[in-house]
Amino acid sequence: MSKLSVFPVSMKVAGRSILIVGGGIEALNKARLALKTDARVLVVAPELDAGFDGLNVRRRAGSAEAADFEDAALVFVATEDDAARDRAIAMARAAGVPLNVVDQPDLCDFYTPAIVDRAPISVAISSEGAAPVLARTIRAQIEALLSPNTGALAALAGQLRVRVESLIEAGPARRRFYESLIGSGRVESALSASVPAARREALRLLNEHAGLANAKGIVSLVGAGPGSEDLLTIRAQRLLQEADVIVHDQLVPDGVIEMGRRDARRIPVGKAKGKHSVSQSEINDLLVDLGKKNLHVVRLKSGDPMVFGRAHEELEALRKAGIAYQIVPGVTSALAAAADSATPVTLRGVASGVVFATAHGADDGELNHWAALAKGGVTLGLYMGKSVMARTARALIANGMGADMPVGVVVNAGRSDRFTGLASLRNLVEGGFSMPDGPAIIFIGHSVAKGEWEHLLSARNAQQKVA
Ligand code: SAH
């Protein structure tokens, strides 16, 4: 990844001056930027453009002098007179004042970003001069994103700070107050009416939070979806941003975990097949301990938390300990697999329903039941079945399912490296084909034949490695 050649900072200018050398249109643009701040703006030029009339700037006719630089926080040199420009540059350097020379990036100490102004909030977008039009487009997007009240809200939060500090201890509870202040629709709509009204709403919220500050934490069981960042729900994303701790499964990829708040602690509790690094009861205890510490815990589970997610055990432990919880659904892998393979898991006249089941540890009675269901037109979506595929297929045939019953396998559903392959029960029994490593969903049923599959899996092309 390429690196920035600039370091964005917010320069203090209050009580100081911003000096602009030049009086043309470029100088006027810089003056307008400078006037967004409460610095004194001093413009020095032999002549000023008419656009300066009525602007709250100090102006001096003539050329810049060393004294003009004494108190300056920043200097913009925007004159077409080369001699005046060189003198101004030399004086700025001598005075050690950071310098911007219009259209001369080589001579600049700093660039001027495109600015979104919601004082006291500011957003500066810089492209290091590489793509100013793109920077302006991004600014327009951010302008649209931020409510006009953003600045007033930030100011309100600032005014409440001392009060908040006296009522709510530093840490997660305090952060939660600010998060709900920022997200409060009531404060936002009060702000549109008047600042005092908004202040009253904010104080009400503060009192509620001060009362809650001693309550225990909350554990959110959050579905992370099948593994792509953009298949997370917006709610999941918000909770990840609010989390103090993220406890995640091994199946949740790094990209998703990285969407969490930067300072959140991350605890992997991977239960990869065959190697149980942390037992379920240890996970339950961990969630209870963290919840008791007044932390916001996000328990991130692949797919949907209520589908083969051991959610029940975790919820039971939380209930028993009296810890608050919430559940956020996610895209379960079978539905991501259906999308990847364009398989209509229900289809009028073909599949009257769909069953999510696990092939892992299925006993004969269950297999018999599934065989009857699939024969009767139900699509089976099997989880955790890859290693027992052949055995499951054999048992289904033994239980009366046709050997030609279509089977679809989706590995790494919902991810860019997904694999989709079509086979039949007979092919599964014969085995021998290869597919990529990774978690898999196995669809069985007549609806599978209606999907779009990239690979045909059969013992005949067994030797042909599928990438
Ligand atoms: N709660 C998860 C399931 C966890 S059980 C969900 O709703 O998806 C683990 C099993 O889920 C794996 O053995 C595999 O069968 C399936 N699985 C999880 N992620 C998958 C993915 N990206 N593609 C295909 N199958 C997946």
Question: Which structural class is indicated by helix and strand composition?
Answer: alpha/beta
Number of strands: 20
What do we call the CATH homologous superfamily of the largest domain? Tetrapyrrole methylase, C-terminal domain
Largest sheet: 6 strands, mixed
Distance between the termini: 28 Å
Q: Give the CATH topology of the largest domain.
A: Methyltransferase, Cobalt-precorrin-4 Transmethylase, Domain 2
Radius of gyration: 32 Å
What is the mean pLDDT?
A: 91
Distinctive features:
467 residues, alpha/beta, Rossmann fold, Helicase, Ruva Protein, domain 3, Cobalt-precorrin-4 Transmethylase, domain 1, 4 domains, 6-stranded mixed beta sheet, 5-stranded parallel beta sheet, 16 helices, 20 strands, binds S-adenosyl-L-homocysteine
Topology:
Elements: E1 17-21, H1 25-34, E2 40-45, E3 58-61, H2 66-69, E4 72-77, H3 82-95, E5 99-101, E6 114-118, E7 121-125, H4 132-145, H5 150-167, H6 172-183, H7 185-193, H8 195-212, E8 218-223, H9 234-242, E9 245-248, H10 254-257, E10 265-268, E11 271-272, E12 275-276, H11 280-292, E13 296-301, H12 311-321, E14 324-328, H13 333-340, E15 353-358, H14 364-375, E16 378-383, H15 389-398, E17 406-411, E18 419-424, H16 425-430, E19 440-444, E20 455-456
Parallel strand pairs: 1-2, 1-4, 2-3, 4-5, 8-13, 8-14, 9-10, 9-13, 15-16, 18-20
Antiparallel strand pairs: 6-7, 11-12, 16-19, 17-18, 17-19
Helix pairs in contact: 5-6, 5-8, 6-8, 7-8, 11-12, 14-15
S-adenosyl-L-homocysteine is lined by residues 226-227, 251, 301-304, 307-309, 332-333, 337, 383-384, 410, 412-415, 439-441.
